[in-house]
């Protein structure tokens, strides 16, 4: 049958058509290169698909929150929204500050002082995420009349984690203190979070 | 696959051996699009378009899934979520949106070439009627999906397109208006219609994928056709799909991608309509409602019927428009000629090229404003369209004297200079 | 009899369609002869937009940020009181070369405020715009609502050229038109503009005199220049990612040309020695 193939040189017999006997290894490289380049192309084409699932520009644009604190009296707290998560802002009373300072740091699960968790000269402003570090529930205590738990700070109703007046974990399953986001005071009463 | 010389799957890799002995999926793929599928050696580039249509389907499904993650399916939010969030804020969102919108055009373009390839080379004839029938079903499903997808951006053309297309159904006597309201879930397109179109637009591509599997399955029973229309006679007529046609399709995919990318990156709005960048306004109709280009020939047929005769003109238009596709189902029995390829059918070949021209002119008419001149041309072309399938082809298939066919694919490939005699000898040997 | 009917059913159906089309054709031709379409003022006097040369034109076009900033100024001072830009965010202006502080200030000083609802009382009030906000909607108390301009450069044929021609195309109604179509006189409260689809536009000429806005970069603010700049700006608002798209396209197409050449080489290699 191979003799049928006119225009085929004798060293390139076809047995049966389809099984070309390769005479040059070099030819294989071309195939490998073509498949590799196609693979790279397909790989790169997947990147925008994956990247499109990252936060979009309108979501990122809300990554900072500006708050006016002037209306928060000592002893009061507010719930704000930071990156679509609850943010607790609490104006601590001197008694609450004293209570927080009284606790020996070494006895804590996540050792931090109140001063570590606030800005210098603004120790009364405790700004934390309202997200329990156990499994992400919103602890009670920021709203008026809510249960502040046995340590007078926040209390998570899901699994009973209790935080003290500095937002530190004192009892229950949560592993760490309530997270303090990055923030800065732009004036005495205005704070930018994020 | 029925050719006795088809290669058998013999996995060398122990992992593949393990998988294959428990679930013969690798074997299935090998026999479907691998070295286990013998294919005529003489396929030309028009045989690339089946694989390209499959690729276009995959592109639409993949880009569509990601776009659906960002799309708001509501009359109040759809336009904003596409033209605001996706086009501006989502990472690479503009790319996904333009790829999906132009991907639909590429898909339909490939399908049209694939269909006309089938018409020219008689791919619908025995023993491949089932391949053709499933193909027409796929074509209908793709058109339905494309139409519903075009509604989703909720621009002016989306809205009025939905209004007009669902309006077709109100042409049906007695129950028509009820059907229209049922389809829309209201008296005009609104949230209910948009949401069900979105739901179906997401579902139908997977139905299409299922139909594509049946299409390929049905193809593998008799094996692929070829430009001579002569059936495979022996092993020398075929080559294994892989690597021969995978290599050729790889090149075809490259060309497809270059054209597709040129549209996406440099002319993304070329095939769209400016009015769809205007939010849907139920109180104001655009000056000229035109569907997407791939519906233009059918839209021209719809508009060509302007005379009442027994039933109202509107119903004639709708019947003719759907009829123009439905009659493709009957084509295998309308064309009785035993010769498949138009290369050997001088009469049919002329009719074929007239049909191509006819459909192109219909397309032009469907995209233009319905001035009297355009309507007259549409009427003449629509008449030929029906005449072609129902009168011209059946008559030609009886009267025509086909040219002599080659004895085999191999003979056709090697040319007539002594090849045929040698083939016979070789076959006898 | 029946077999003959079955055999000829296709001819009957085909002839049926052709007969109805023939009826329709006769109808169309008769109408055309009996009542030929009357020419309309729109058909005869409507003009296609003048060509407009912008940096963003063509498949490789780029943005000219200086021009976009001038265009934004024209939009801000002239268009913004009636036309919103509701798909664009203030933060997007950073792409034109404004820094964060400038964008914040533009947002804060924007005369139309963001509506906010009091969650307890249900009443609506307003607040200053933030950089993260979209340009607020404009509620225009006059006749009709002026279109949002975010996508105007895509929502009209020859978008940018159309905007430029429209802005510079106001003129008196030609006497010739009135002579030919006496009923087509521009109605009160409308203005003649041959680039507008029905020739009479409700928008008063917005750009009327040189130096209507003051450019800080020393460009002479002629009416034509202002119209050009705002058209360029509206190309940007319609697709801020246009330049990214063009750049990515060059890389993608070059890669594909290379990959396709390789694929062609592989194809030839595979088929070498096999006649087909």
TrEMBL record, chain A:
Gene3D superfamilies: Rieske [2Fe-2S] iron-sulphur domain, Single helix bin. Residues 94-192 form the Rieske domain. InterPro entries: Rieske_2Fe-2S, Rieske_2Fe-2S_sf, Rieske_Fe-S_prot, Rieske_Fe-S_prot_C, Ubiq_cytC_Rdtase_Fe-S_su_TAT, Ubiquinol_cyt_c_Rdtase_Fe-S-su. It is found in: Cell membrane. Binds 1 [2Fe-2S] cluster per subunit. It catalyses: a quinol + 2 Fe(III)-[cytochrome c](out) = a quinone + 2 Fe(II)-[cytochrome c](out) + 2 H(+)(out). It is an enzyme of class 7 (translocase). Its EC number is 7.1.1.8. Keywords: 2Fe-2S, Cell membrane, Disulfide bond, Electron transport, Iron, Iron-sulfur, Membrane, Metal-binding, Translocase, Transmembrane, Transmembrane helix, Transport. One of its GO terms (molecular function) is 2 iron, 2 sulfur cluster binding. It is a single-pass membrane protein. The keyword Transmembrane applies. One of its GO terms (cellular component) is plasma membrane. Its cofactor is [2Fe-2S] cluster. The Rieske protein is a high potential 2Fe-2S protein. Component of the ubiquinol-cytochrome c reductase complex (complex III or cytochrome b-c1 complex), which is a respiratory chain that generates an electrochemical potential coupled to ATP synthesis. NCBIfam families: Rieske_proteo. Belongs to the Rieske iron-sulfur protein family. The main subunits of complex b-c1 are: cytochrome b, cytochrome c1 and the Rieske protein. This is Ubiquinol-cytochrome c reductase iron-sulfur subunit. It comes from Sphingomonas xinjiangensis.
UniProtKB/TrEMBL annotation, chain B:
Coiled coil: none annotated. One of its GO terms (molecular function) is metal ion binding. It is a multi-pass membrane protein. GO terms for cellular component: respiratory chain complex III. InterPro entries: Cyt_b/b6_C, Cyt_b/b6_C_sf, Cyt_b/b6_N, Cytb/b6-like_sf, Cytochrome_b, Cytochrome_b_C_euk/bac, Cytochrome_b_N_euk/bac, Di-haem_cyt_TM. Heme b b562 binds at residues 100, 201. Heme b b566 binds at residues 114, 215. Residues 15-228 form the Cytochrome b/b6 N-terminal region profile domain. It is found in: Membrane. Pfam families: Cytochrom_B_C, Cytochrome_B. Its main location: membrane. The keyword Nucleotide-binding does not apply. Residues 231-407 form the Cytochrome b/b6 C-terminal region profile domain. Its cofactor is heme; heme b. The chain crosses the membrane at residues 45-71, 92-115, 130-152, 159-179, 199-219, 250-267, 315-334, 346-364, 376-396. The main subunits of complex b-c1 are: cytochrome b, cytochrome c1 and the Rieske protein. Belongs to the cytochrome b family. This is Cytochrome b.
TrEMBL record, chain C:
Heme c binds at residues 79, 82-83, 203. Keywords: Heme, Iron, Membrane, Metal-binding, Transmembrane, Transmembrane helix. It is found in: Membrane. The keyword Lipid biosynthesis does not apply. Coiled coil: none annotated. Its main location: membrane. One of its GO terms (molecular function) is metal ion binding. It comes from the Bacteria. GO terms for cellular component: membrane. Residues 66-167 form the Cytochrome c domain. Binds 1 heme c group covalently per subunit. Pfam families: Cytochrom_C1. The chain crosses the membrane at residues 12-33, 248-270. Its cofactor is heme c. InterPro entries: Cyt_c-like_dom, Cyt_c-like_dom_sf, Cyt_c1. SUPFAM superfamilies: Cytochrome c. PANTHER family: CYTOCHROME C1, CYTOCHROME C1, HEME PROTEIN, MITOCHONDRIAL. This is Cytochrome c1. It comes from Sphingomonas xinjiangensis.
């Amino acid at each position: 049958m191979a003799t049928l193939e006119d225009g085929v040189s004798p060293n390139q017999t076809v047995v049966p058509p389809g099984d070309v006997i390769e005479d040059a290894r070099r030819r294989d490289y071309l195939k490998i290169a073509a498949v590799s380049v196609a693979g790279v192309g397909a790989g790169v084409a997947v990147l925008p698909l994956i990247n499109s699932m990252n936060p979009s520009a309108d979501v990122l644009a809300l990554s900072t929150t500006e708050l006016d604190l002037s209306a928060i009296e000592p002893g009061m707290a507010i719930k704000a929204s930071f990156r679509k998560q609850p943010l607790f802002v609490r104006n601590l009373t001197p008694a609450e500050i004293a209570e927080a300072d009284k606790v020996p740091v070494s006895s804590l699960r996540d050792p931090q002082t109140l001063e570590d968790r606030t800005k210098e000269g603004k120790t009364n402003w405790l700004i934390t995420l309202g997200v329990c570090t156990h499994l992400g529930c919103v602890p009670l205590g920021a709203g008026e009349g809510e249960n502040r738990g046995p340590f007078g700070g926040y209390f998570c109703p899901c699994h009973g984690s209790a935080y003290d007046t500095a937002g530190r974990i004192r009892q229950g399953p949560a592993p760490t203190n309530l997270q303090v986001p990055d923030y800065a005071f732009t004036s005495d009463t205005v704070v930018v979070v994020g | 696959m029925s050719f006795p010389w088809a290669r058998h799957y013999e996995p060398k890799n122990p992992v593949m051996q393990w998988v294959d002995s428990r679930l013969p999926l690798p074997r299935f793929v090998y026999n479907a699009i691998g070295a286990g599928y013998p294919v005529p050696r003489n396929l030309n580039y028009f045989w690339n378009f089946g694989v390209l249509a499959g690729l276009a389907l995959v592109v639409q499904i993949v880009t569509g899934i990601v776009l659906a993650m960002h799309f708001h399916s509501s009359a109040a939010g759809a336009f904003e979520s596409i033209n605001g969030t996706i086009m501006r804020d989502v990472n690479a969102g503009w790319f996904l949106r333009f790829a999906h919108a132009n991907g639909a055009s590429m898909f339909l373009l490939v399908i049209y070439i694939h269909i006309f390839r089938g018409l020219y080379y008689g791919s619908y004839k025995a023993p491949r009627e089932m391949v053709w029938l499933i193909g027409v079903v796929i074509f209908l499903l793709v058109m339905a999906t494309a139409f519903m997808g075009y509604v989703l951006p909720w621009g002016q053309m989306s809205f009025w397109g939905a209004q007009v297309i669902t309006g077709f159904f109100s042409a049906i006597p007695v129950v028509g208006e009820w059907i229209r309201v049922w389809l829309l879930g209201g008296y005009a397109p609104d949230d209910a219609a948009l949401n069900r179109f979105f739901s179906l637009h997401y579902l139908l591509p997977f139905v299409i994928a299922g139909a594509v599997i049946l299409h390929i399955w049905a193809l593998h029973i008799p094996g692929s056709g070829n430009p001579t229309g002569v059936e495979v006679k022996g092993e020398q007529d075929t080559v294994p799909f892989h690597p021969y046609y995978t290599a050729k399709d790889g090149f075809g995919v490259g060309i497809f991608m270059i054209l597709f990318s040129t549209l996406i990156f440099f002319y993304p709005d070329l095939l769209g309509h400016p009015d769809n960048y205007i939010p849907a306004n139920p109180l104001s109709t655009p000056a000229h409602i035109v569907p997407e280009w791939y519906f233009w020939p059918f839209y021209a047929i719809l508009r060509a019927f302007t005379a009442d005769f027994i039933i109202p003109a509107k119903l004639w238009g709708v019947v003719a428009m759907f009829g123009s596709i439905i009659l493709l189902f009957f084509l295998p029995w309308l064309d009785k000629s035993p010769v498949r390829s138009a290369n050997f059918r001088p009469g049919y070949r002329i009719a074929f090229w007239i049909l191509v021209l006819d459909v192109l002119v219909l397309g032009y008419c469907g995209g233009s404003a319905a001035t009297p001149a355009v309507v007259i041309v549409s009427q003449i072309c629509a008449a030929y369209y029906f005449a072609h399938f129902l009168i011209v082809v059946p008559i030609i298939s009886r009267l025509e004297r086909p040219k002599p066919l080659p004895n085999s694919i191999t003979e056709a490939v090697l040319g007539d200079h002594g090849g045929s005699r040698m083939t016979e000898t070789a076959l006898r040997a | 009899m029946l077999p003959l009917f079955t055999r000829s059913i296709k001819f009957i159906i085909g002839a049926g369609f052709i007969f109805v089309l023939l009826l329709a054709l006769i109808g169309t031709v008769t109408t055309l002869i009996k009542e030929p379409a009357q020419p309309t003022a729109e058909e005869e006097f409507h003009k296609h937009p003048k060509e407009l040369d912008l940096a963003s034109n063509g498949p490789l076009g780029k943005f000219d940020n200086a021009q976009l900033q001038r265009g934004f100024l024209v939009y801000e001072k002239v268009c913004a009181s009636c036309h919103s830009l509701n798909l664009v965010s203030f933060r997007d202006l950073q792409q034109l070369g404004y820094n964060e502080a400038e964008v914040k200030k533009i947002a804060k000083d924007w005369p139309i405020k963001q509506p906010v609802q009091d969650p307890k009382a249900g009443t609506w009030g307003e607040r200053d715009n933030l950089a993260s906000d979209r340009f607020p909607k404009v509620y225009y108390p006059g006749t009709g609502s002026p279109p949002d301009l975010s996508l105007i450069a895509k929502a009209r044929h020859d978008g940018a050229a159309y905007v430029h021609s429209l802005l510079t195309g106001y003129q008196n109604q030609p006497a010739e038109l009135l002579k030919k179509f006496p009923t087509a006189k521009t109605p009160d409260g409308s203005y003649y503009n041959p680039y507008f689809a029905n020739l009479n536009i409700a928008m008063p000429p917005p750009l009327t005199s040189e130096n209507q806005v003051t450019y800080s970069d020393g460009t002479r603010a002629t009416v034509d220049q202002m119209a050009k700049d705002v058209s360029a700006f509206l190309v940007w608002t319609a697709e801020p990612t246009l330049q990214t798209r063009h750049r990515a396209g060059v890389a993608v197409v070059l890669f594909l040309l290379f990959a396709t050449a390789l694929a062609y080489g592989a194809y030839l290699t595979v088929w070498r020695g096999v006649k087909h």
